Structures are given as C-alpha cells and as structure tokens.
Amino acid sequence: MSSTISKQIVPGLKVIELNRSGLKELFITATPRDGGDFRHMFEDIHRVVDEAGATIVTKEVFGIPHAKPEGLAALRSVWNKPDWPVTWLADGRSTDMNLTGVQVHAVKGVTVERIEMDGRIIGSVFDDGFARHCHLGDLRPQNGSASPVRQARETFDFIEAALCSADMEFANVVRTWFYLDQILSWYSRFNNVRDQFFREQNVFDGIVPASTGIGSSNAAQTAVIAEAYAVQPHANSVKIMAVPSPLQCPALQYGSSFSRAVEVDTPDYRRLFISGTASIDSSGRTVHVGDLPRQIELTMEVVEAIIASCSMSWRDVTRAVAYVKQGSDANLFKDYCAARRLDDLPIVTTENDICRQELRFEVEVDACRVR
Fold first, then answer.
1. Could you tell me if residue 72 is inside a domain?
2. Dist CA 214 CA 276 (whole Å)
3. d(CA 308, CA 304)
4. Where does the pLDDT of residue 92 fall: very low under 50, low under 70, confident under 90, or very high at 90 and above?
5. Sign of CA dihedral 171, 177, 362, 57
6. What is d(CA 201, CA 68) in angstroms, rounded to the nearest whole number?
7. Which of 189, 214, 198 is nearest to 89 (CA)?
C-alpha cells in the first residue's frame, strides 16, 4: 500500500493523518472554537482518537490553567487518568482563551510501550518497521527548589536515563523542547549546561538536535520542563540529517547548541523538524527590533525557505506552534496568515517570553511528505 496523507479541518480542530503499510499516525491540533471552553478541546481530541482506534503517544497543553477547575478537571472529565506523557505549559500565563490549545500525536497499528519514571508516565515508544521512535514528555527535575542551573542539569540527566530505559542513547535524539521559567534571567546559563552535557555525550560529533528554547511556566512549578523525540533506525535505509537554513547562520555559530532543522528520511516518508525560529539575520543578530510585523514576516520567510529547501511547502505542515511575547501580538500574526492563505495551518498560538528581550515572535514547525 502506498503512503498517503489526508487532512480534516474544521473550526477548532485540525487533524493530519499519515497512512502507510499498516500504520496510521495522527497529528491533532485543537484550539478554541466559538462558544467552546477548555473541555471542548479535550473532547474533540478524544473523539478523533476514539473513532480512529488509535493510541495517544504524547500530548502538549498550552496556556490552559492547570490547577483551576477549568484546567485539570477539564482533562480528567474526558480522560480520568491519562497513561501517556502530558507536558502542561504556560500555567496561568494568559487569561485569553484564544492563546490556548492542545496538540496530540497518536498511532494505530503498532504497539505503544510506556516509559515510567518517578511514578509517572514520561515516554512512549513504538516501532514503525523502519525505526524505533521514542517521544519523551513532562521531563523535569526532582528537586524543584534547586537553582535553575542545577534543575537544568537534572533534566538532561533525566532525559539520558529515560532513553537508556528504552535502550536508546542521546545520539538518537533528533528534536528537543526546553520550556524555561523566567527564561530571560538565565538562558545563557542554561546554554552552558546544555553545552557541557552535549560535550559529555559527544553530541557535537553527530547530529545536533533541532530544538526550541522558550519561556514558559509549567504545572509542576519547576525552572524547566522538557520534551525529546528520538529515532533509532533499523537499517541504512533511514537517513537522519541536519538541515541548514538558507537565510540564517548555524545557531552553533553564536553559541546555541541546536540545528536549524533535522530531517528523518525513510523509504515511506520524510519528516522535517524545524527549530524555534525568530527574527535573526544571517550573522545571528536580532533584526527589526520594535517592528513586530517585520519580525513575523522575516521569521516566516526563514521557515518557508527551510521547508522549500526540502522540497516541501506549507501544505505539508503537520503541527506548528507560534509564540508571541504579548497576547495582543497574536492578532498581527493572525492577519499575516489570513493575507497569505495560511489560515488552515495546524498551529497553536500562545503567549510566552522569547529567548531575547527584543524578540516578540517565534515559531516552530513540523512537516511531512510521503514518497
């Protein structure tokens, strides 16, 4: 059977379905719909997953209050006790309903194994015949009262331990996400911790993962919470490669240890993971300071150039997240998408601090094209 991709797009719900050789993958993005509430987003996802007979691999929650009744209670009213990783971000960051959303990756046709550590599910592993895939979520330090630097190091060690339990190593990681509380006060120190860990793991000798480093509080109230996606190929038919940005210099050039993008190339499909991208020029400098429309325009041009370099287009996007520094900035991004007919992107827009004080917008994108 040839591989196919189909889409279901209705208000508040975008489902990208990848079908190939007995395996179905679902990439689901739920956002607020008119007259809806937080619970509706969870109900919409539950319906899609249930109708497909799929198993959830991981879930990310953006901007929905966790401790308040409309937050965690809304989730538990649909799933009493989720047995998959749930990374709950931006707890209480915004009161704007439109700056919330939920994203889910689910699969059907394969067995999904769970990784449990510290008494909670933090990972899912499945095999698609070409490679073993491991998505880790809700990764955080045990000691939330330690210094941010110490918490960061504990989180990296936790990732390594979780991968080891899945018979993988950090060299298999193709994508990471780091959500740092009060990012502007310690991002450079976080980068130092990451650099040290990468040197210890010999990451610089192989593929440096694509990554997002963004400001966000979290439900656990730790200084950092993270996710990681690892791919362990069975044969040389699976290629994993870093993808340069045609319009930006390598992030390594100015001291940030991540690839602009990473591509996973299999006999059935190609998946592209584009790092968090902002208004930075070819020398690594912030540009269009104080001019949000131009920051948005340049950022999207940079992402589009990476997508095009891999013979893909915006139509191939399976999930995306847009981060705006202020909630009111979201309307300008919405206008940008409408003017360019990108309204159907499977994207969540949420309010977060960016890693540089002068940056007001960042976006990350995943895309997929079948053979």
1. no
2. 8
3. 6
4. low
5. positive
6. 40
7. 214
Residue 169, Cβ density class (10 Å: 0-12 exposed, 13-18 middle, ≥19 buried): middle
Residue 111's pLDDT band, with cuts at 50, 70 and 90, is: very high
Count of domains for the chain = 1
> Using one digit for the tens of pLDDT, what is the confidence trace for 164-181?
999 999 999 999 999 999
- Of the candidates 356, 248, 267, the one whose C-alpha atom is nearest the C-alpha of residue 309 is 248
- The CATH number for 324's domain is 3.30.1330.40
Which residues make beta-bridge pairs with 175? 210, 229
Residue 356 resides in a domain? yes
Neighbours of 235 (CB within 10 A): 9
Please give the pLDDT value at position 65: 79
Kindly list the distances between the CA atom of residue 143 and the CA atoms of 20, 154, 222, 363, in Å, as whole numbers in the listed order.
Answer: 43, 8, 8, 30
Distance of alpha carbon 143 from alpha carbon 38, whole angstroms: 30
Residues in the chain: 371
Q: How far is CA 148 from CA 223, 227, 244, in A?
A: 5, 17, 31
State the residue range of the domain holding 337: 239-371
Look at residue 194 and tell me if it is in a domain: no
**Rounded average pLDDT over 42-46:** 95
Residues contacting 152, CB < 8 A, separation 6+:
141, 189, 190, 193, 194, 223, 224
Does the residue 300 lie in any domain? yes
Residue type, 6: S
